[in-house]
Design brief:
single chain, alpha/beta, Rossmann fold, 2 domains, two-stranded antiparallel sheet, about 15% strand, binds zinc ion
Length: about 230
Amino acid sequence: MKKKRNVLLSLIFPERCVYCGARVPGGTPVCEKCRKSLPRIEEKVCPKCGRGKKVCDCRGKENYFDGIAAPFYFSGCVRNGLHIFKFRNSTSGAGEFAREMAETLKQRFGDIAFDFITEVPVSRKSLRARGYNQSALIAKELSSLTGIPYKSGVIEKIYETRAQHGLPGYLRTGNLSGVYDLPEPSAVKDKTVLLCDDISTSGETLNECAKMLWLGGAKSIYCITLALTPVRK
Ligand SMILES: [Zn+2]
Ligand SMILES: [Zn+2]
């Protein structure tokens, strides 16, 4: 009976692959084609930028965070999946993305005792326009999968900026300076924080958020994203 009901449900609400949008049998979040072509970061990883050592070009650049990890490079079906997640108001990917990130977290930062997970914030204006913060959705899912408590709104984005990816590298750092605020610094004092975002390109957004946590006295700061651009842009 239960099986029958599931079949009926999947006909009414056909499940779609979170990476390409193709219809998949009920209960399967990823289609066969995408599952085989996921651009996993599998090689030896640079601890500073989370990319494979062959593509890393961070040249020992110091960050305010202690480490970063991601399951995937931002290319192929992952690029597509994040586009669906971000721009087509489809939030169904959050669970599957968080599941992948939880695996990576276990492998890379499994021995770290995090006090809480929080997200890279969006401005109030963006939140009103979209109705949700996609990074917060993933952070919440990640929290329920890992048991690490979730704390929302630890960092606030106090004003809107031009999209980072539309700017040349030399303008990005200045573009973000003073954009974020830490409304309650005591919440992060001496804490080990896991900062969650969907994607990192140059790392400047995460670094600026990590800077706020560092200024608030956080003990250590680690970042997790679903994807990293193969080359820092
Ligand atoms: Zn697919
Ligand atoms: Zn590196």
